[in-house]
UniProtKB/TrEMBL annotation:
Keyword annotations of the record: Membrane, Transmembrane, Transmembrane helix
Transmembrane stretches, start-end: 20-41, 53-75, 81-102
Name of this protein: Unannotated protein
Length: 122
């Protein structure tokens, strides 16, 4: 979500739209690459730190962008674009994943004897 939203329009105005790639969207794109690395790392704590940095960037940058626009022009003349919404939503999902990674590891439950313990009967 963040990877795609980084390049979509972040701000829609009557004059046109502003792409995320022209500004802060590049930061979220780089954070999305870090999030992708977190998925591929087999070490749980390192992946959790990567996911936290990804989530913080993907949440803070869009919120900062909206607050910056509110101080410049107020609520008139612009609306958040789909890219801004996708990046913020991806950041929230990334924060949820990071919280789960920092939590206790899931344990698997046995559903019966394993196949390796069975003996062959002739």
């Amino acid at each position: 979500m963040v990877l795609l939203g980084s390049f979509l329009p972040w701000i829609d105005t009557a004059v046109g739209s502003v792409s995320g790639a022209r500004g802060a969207g590049l930061w979220t794109f780089y954070a999305a690459m870090l999030g992708l690395a977190a998925v591929l790392i087999p070490l749980r704590r390192v992946a959790a730190v990567h996911a936290t940095v990804f989530a913080a960037t993907a949440v803070v940058v869009p919120v900062w962008q909206v607050l910056h626009l509110l101080t410049l022009v107020g609520l008139n003349g612009w609306v958040p674009g789909p890219g801004l919404v996708l990046v913020l939503g991806g950041g929230v999902l990334g924060a949820t994943a990071a919280a789960q990674l920092f939590g206790p590891a899931a344990t698997t439950m046995s559903t019966g004897p394993s196949t390796s313990s069975r003996t062959r009967r002739d």
